[in-house]
Amino acid sequence: MTGHVILSRNLIVDRHEIDLLAREGDCLVLVEVRMRSGRSFGTSLDSMHPGKLRRLHSAMQRVQCRMHWNGEMRLDLITIDGCPEGGQLQLEHYRGIA
Questions:
Q1: What pLDDT is stored for residue 36 in this prediction?
Q2: Which pairs with CB-CB distance under 8 Å and at least 24 residues apart come from 46-53?
Q3: Which residue of 4, 51, 63, 93 is most buried, as measured by CB atoms within 10 A?
């Protein structure tokens, strides 16, 4: 997340939690962080189901209203996957998920 300024961590908006609220230039960025230590239940990306995505979009709208934000907004996803044998973590940053 080079170039981002973190504004808040673990922000609660109504019943929704936003892992990171950041700013990148003139863009407000809500960031969901998903982590899996092993592959038994799929990858971190696999854990991003439609219900979670709907809740994040709802939280995004609420943040926009609360902050009276009229500029660009974006929802990003950071996935962190590791292996239980102690291998290296794999981190991916997905910008502008739908």
A1: 87
A2: 48/77, 48/79, 48/97, 53/97, 53/98
A3: 63
